[in-house]
Task: inverse folding
């Protein structure tokens, strides 16, 4: 999906023109994948434009940086302000926001500590991640031959650029096999997550999702769905999930900032439930979008208005 030039990008404390937000080819990040980033959405509703769970995203950005011993030369409040400023400056009502922290130009070689830590925030209009109809009709997913990183190889809880090499392998394989998205297993063979989403299933009216120990990114949409489900009186279990539990589930769906809540209609060519969005998925989607669209009270305090 394209991200067309849309005005200005916040780079190391300054608003610069889109075309001028560039890095040197010998920046550490280009060679060694040394970046951490976030994906955040801003939605237009009847009260204005609101960023969804801004503080939690910025906190995770700082956690990712901490794991990789990157000192971000700003506070969390300053980054929150930079994000709000980027959306405002570009006059965007609904957009996808990408803050990225990376090891910049300084020294070559794996040991990264003498490279500067650069920070950028960009925003652009980004539609439905898995296709316009996906939110309603669902997507076809396939279990990948690529597994998520074992816990003692790369930290999955860090949203680091390098992790997405694994995601890319899985996604390219899935698309080559005719699927919309990949589902990866963890090191032990349990379900982990999609290339850019967390995964849930519904069985006998209760919700199941893999635990953080299954090598996944602790998604903020995942957390939102768990909170909404529990508020709606739906039981949620975070426990190891086997591949066949997906096959025999009544419903399954992906969650992510980009993917929002996307139903999964088949896995490995096996139809899940009725092969279309199920009632629990719809309930969660409806409530999720009601909060975002300010059609109900923001009782969790998830919206930051621009
Ligand atoms: N797992 C992975 C691997 C992942 O990349 C994401 C988000 C999630 C789970 C869900 O996390 P959250 O957004 O906090 O609910 N993926 C981001 C990047 C996607 C991309 O293609 O780039 C996103 O959805 O913004």
Result:
């Amino acid at each position: 999906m394209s991200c067309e030039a849309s005005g200005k990008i916040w780079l190391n404390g300054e608003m610069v023109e889109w075309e001028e937000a560039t890095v040197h080819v010998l920046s550490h990040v280009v060679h060694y994948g040394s970046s951490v980033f976030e994906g955040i959405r801003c939605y237009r509703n009847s009260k204005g434009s609101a960023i969804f769970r801004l503080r939690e995203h910025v906190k995770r950005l700082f956690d990712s940086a901490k794991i990789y011993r990157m000192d971000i030369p700003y506070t969390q409040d300053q980054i929150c302000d930079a994000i709000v400023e980027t959306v405002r400056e570009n006059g965007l009502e609904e957009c996808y926001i990408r803050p990225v922290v990376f090891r910049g130009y300084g020294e070559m070689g794996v040991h990264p500590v003498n490279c500067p830590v650069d920070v950028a925030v960009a925003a652009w209009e980004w539609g439905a991640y898995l296709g316009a109809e996906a939110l309603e009709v669902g997507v076809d997913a396939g279990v990948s031959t690529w597994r998520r990183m074992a816990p003692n190889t790369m930290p999955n809880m860090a949203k680091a650029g390098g992790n997405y090499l694994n995601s890319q392998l899985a996604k390219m394989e899935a698309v080559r096999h005719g699927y919309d998205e990949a589902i990866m297993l963890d090191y032990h063979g349990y379900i982990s997550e999609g290339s850019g989403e967390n995964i849930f299933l519904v069985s006998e009216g209760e919700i199941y999702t893999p635990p953080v120990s299954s090598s996944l990114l602790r998604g903020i949409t995942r957390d939102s769905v768990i909170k909404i489900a529990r508020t709606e009186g739906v039981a949620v279990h975070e426990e190891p999930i086997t591949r066949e539990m997906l096959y025999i589930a009544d419903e399954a769906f992906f969650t992510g900032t980009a993917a929002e809540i996307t139903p999964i209609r088949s896995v490995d060519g096996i139809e899940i439930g009725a092969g279309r969005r199920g009632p629990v998925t719809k309930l969660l989607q409806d409530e999720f979008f009601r909060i975002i669209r300010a059609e109900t009270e923001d009782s969790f305090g998830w919206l930051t208005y621009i």
Summary: Residues 134-292 form a domain with the D-amino Acid Aminotransferase; Chain A, domain 2 fold (CATH 3.20.10.10). The helical segments are 28-32, 54-67, 76-89, 134-137, 163-176, 220-231, 243-247, 279-292. Residues 39, 167, 193, 196-198, 217, 219-222, 255-259 surround PPE (CB under 6 Å).
